[in-house]
Amino acid sequence: MKPEPPSTRPYLIRRLAALLTATALAFAALLAAFYGVGRNAAAVTDRTAPAIVEVEAARKALETSYAAARASLDEKDTAEAEGVGETYGAELNAAKQHLVKAGLGTVADKEGRETLRTATGQVSSYDFLIQQAARSPDNETLRRAYLGYAENTLRKKGSGIVSRLEKVQLSQRGTLADETSFDGPLWFLWATAYVLCAALAWLLAGTQRALRRRFRRRISPPLAGATALVALVLPLLTVLSLQIQDGLKLAAGRLGRIGDPAGTLPKVEQTMAGTHWRAAVAGWIPLAAVVLAALVVAGLQPRIEEYRFGKVRRRGERRPRTRFHNRMYQATAAFLAVCLVLLGSVVNGGWPDLREGRVTVLASWTGDEEKRFVAVLERFREKENIDFTYQGTTSLRDVLLSRVKSGTAPDIAILPSLGEAAEYIGDLQPLGKVQEKPLRSYRDYEPLWTSQDGAEIHAVPVKVSLKSIVWHDKALSRGLDARSAQGARWCAGMGGDATSGWPGTDWVEDILLQRSGKDTYMAWARGDLPWSSPEVRDAWRLFGERLGAGPARTALRQDYTHGPFPKPDGKGDVRPPGCDLQHQGSFIRTTYRDGAAATFTPFRDLLPGADRTGTAREISADFATLFGKSAAARKLMRFLTEEEAQRVWAKPLPDSEGTTVTAGEDPWRPFFLTYRETLPKGSVNARVDEELHARAPLCLDASDVMPPRMRSAFQHGVLDYLSSPDDATLTRVLDDLDAVRVGTARTPHADPPRVCN
C-alpha cells in the first residue's frame, strides 16, 4: 500500500514559513555583513581621521616651536631683542589647541588616552624651560643649558612629549586598522550571507517547481520576482562593500603618510566622499527584505486559498517530531546564537572587558625603573583581576596639576615629596582606614611621615633611597680625599629634564647637614633659617669650590646619569668618563653598566669641615597618594605598602645579557623601611640596607619638604649659580631665594612634625 501523499495546504503553509524564515535570516546576515563594512566609513571620516591629524599637527607644531625658539635664543643679540620670538608663541599655542581637540576626540585605547593626558601636561614644563632660557640672554652657558633641558623634555626617547605622542598615534592607528581591515568576523558574516542567500534562492526555485507540478502553471510572477530580487541584491551589496573597502584603504594610506596635517583631512574627506551614500544603502536592506517577503506571500497565499482540501488533524493533535527534526532545531538554535554573537561583536567593535575595574597610576619612574614598578602592578593584576594603566614622567608636577584641574586626576599618584602632596590636600583621599595596618609598621619612623596634631594622613612612603653617599670604583678606596679636592674628578650632571638642577640641591643640602648639624638643617628646610644665613651661604660656596668654575659649567650640559661607570654606546664601546666620584643616592647604580665594581663612601668622610663623628644621613622617599575613590584604587594603595608587593619589587631582574644578578649586587633593588630580607654580608645592597636601618638620625631631603614653589626656585638657583660660581652670583641667587621663601605660603597641617627623626 502506497503512503498517503502530504496534504497540499499544510505543505504550502510549511513552505511559506520556510521561505519567510530564510528571507529573515538571509537579509539579517546581509545587513550585518554590509553594516560591518559600511559603519566604519563615517567613523573614519568624522572621528578617527581628525584624531590622528590633530595629534600629528600638535607634534609638528611643537617641533617647529622648538626650532623657532632655538633660532631666536642661540645668539645673544637676537635673544636680547626677540626673546623666544613670535613664531614660538604662535606654534606653541597652536600645539596646545591641537592637543585639546585631540583629547576631546581621541580614538586611542585607555592607555593611549592616559599617555595623551601626560604629554599634554608636559607641554607646560617644556614651555617653562624655554622661557627660562629666554630670561638669560646675557648668560650663554645657562641659556644653552635650558634649551638642552627643553629639548630633552620634548624629544627624549620613551618619556619625551614627541615619544608619547607617537605612542598615542600607534594606538590610534591600531583603531584605524581595525576600522579599515576586512577581518575574520566580516569574512564569516559575508560567507554566511552568501550561504543563506543561496539557500533562499534554492527554496524559491524548488517552490516554483512544486507549484508547476501541482497547479500546472509555468511560472509564478511574484516568486520569480523574489528570486530576481535575491539575485540582484546580493551582487549589488557585494560591489558596494568592495567600493567602500577600497575607500577605507585609500583613507588609511593617506593617514599613514601625513605630510601637511592641514591638507590631509580634506584629502581624506575627498577620498571617502563616495563611501557615505554607499554605506547608507544599509538602511534599504530591511525594506528589500519586506518586499521579498511580500512577493513570497503574494506567490503562495492564493494557492493556499485555492487548495482547501486535505487531511485535517484532529483538534489538539500535534504533528510528531522525529529525531531529525530535533537535531535540526538544535543546530538552527546554535547557528542563530553564533550569528547573534558575531553580529554583536561587529556592531560593538570588540569583546567586553571581564576585569574587575582599572586603576590609573602616575609616577616619575621611566625606563628601567618603570619596568621594575610595572612588575609590581602586574602582580596586583594577577592577584585581584584589576587592570592598570601606568604613566611615568619627569614632568610629574605639571602633568598632575593639569590633570587635577581638568578633573582627570589619576587614581594614585606617587610623589617625590611631602611638600608636593600638601598642595593636593583638598583633592586627596585620607589614608587612615585604607592604610591602618601598614601605617602601624612605620611607627619607628613616624615623625617623618605622619601629619601634625593627629590630622589625617594623605601620603605614605612606598620606597626610600639613601643619600649622603659618594659612589666610586672599589679599586679607588684609597686616596679619595685627594681626588675629592679636584673638581674634574667629580661626575656631576645637573640635567633632569623638567626637574633639572635637583642633583645640585642634594649637594647643598648634604654639605649643610654634615657641617652644621641636623638642627640647622631642619630649621632651614622648614623655612625658619634664611638662605642668606652664614651656614647656608657657606654650604653653597663650598659646593661651587668643590666643582670649580669649569666643571660646574660642564655639569649644566650633562645629565644626572653622567657617572663613573657609563654604559656602552650603540656600538658596544665604553667611553671613559674622565671622572671618578659621584655624589648621588642609592638609586643611581641603575644608570651604571652591567657588572660595575661600584661601592660608596659616606660623604662626610670626603667633606672638609664636616663632623666626621656625626651619623646623620639624608634620605629621599616616594610617597603614594590616593585621588580615586574606587574600591580598586584602595586595593592597589594597600597592596603597594604590603610585603608581597615589596618582595616582588625587590626581586632581581635579568640584566641586558639575560643574566639575573644576585640580590646583594642588584643595582635595581629598591629599599623599604618596613621590609627587609637577608642579603649577603658586605654586599653593596646589604650596606645600603644597614645604613637605612641603623639607629642613627635620618633626615628627609630638604627640598622634598619645601613647598613646590620653593623647591623649584632652589633647583633653578643651582643652575644659575653653577653658570658663574662666584660671590656676586651667589648673593643674587640667595636674595632671590629668600624673596621666594618670604612670599611662599605653607600648609602647616600637612608638614611633618620633624624633618629628621
Fold topology:
Elements: H1 8-73, H2 76-82, H3 86-105, H4 110-134, H5 140-155, H6 161-180, H7 184-215, H8 221-256, H9 261-271, H10 273-279, H11 285-306, H12 323-348, E1 358-363, H13 367-384, E2 387-392, H14 396-405, E3 412-415, H15 418-422, H16 436-440, H17 446-449, E4 460-466, E5 469-473, H18 480-484, H19 502-525, H20 534-547, H21 549-557, E6 582-583, E7 598-602, E8 617-626, H22 631-640, H23 643-650, H24 684-693, E9 698-700, H25 702-705, H26 708-723, H27 727-743
Parallel strand pairs: 1-2, 1-3, 8-9
Antiparallel strand pairs: 3-8, 4-8, 5-6, 5-7
Helix pairs in contact: 1-3, 1-5, 1-6, 1-7, 1-8, 1-9, 1-10, 1-11, 1-12, 3-4, 4-5, 4-6, 4-14, 6-8, 7-8, 8-9, 8-10, 8-11, 13-22, 13-23, 19-20, 19-26, 26-27
Description:
The structure is a single chain. By secondary structure, the chain is of the alpha/beta class. It is about 60% helix and about 5% strand. The chain folds into three domains: about 10-45 and about 180-310 and about 320-350, no CATH class; about 50-180, Up-down Bundle (Four Helix Bundle (Hemerythrin (Met), subunit A)), CATH 1.20.120; about 465-615 and about 670-750, 3-Layer(aba) Sandwich (D-Maltodextrin-Binding Protein, domain 2), CATH 3.40.190.10. It is built from 27 helices and nine strands. Strands 1, 2, 3, 4, 8 and 9 form a six-stranded mixed beta sheet that branches. It has a three-stranded antiparallel beta sheet with strand order 6-5-7. Helix 13 (about 365-385) links the parallel strand 1 (about 360-365) and strand 2 (about 385-390). Helix 1 (about 10-75) runs antiparallel to helix 11 (about 285-305). The chain is elongated, with a radius of gyration of 36 Å. Residues about 1-5, about 310-315 and about 340-355 have low confidence and may be disordered.
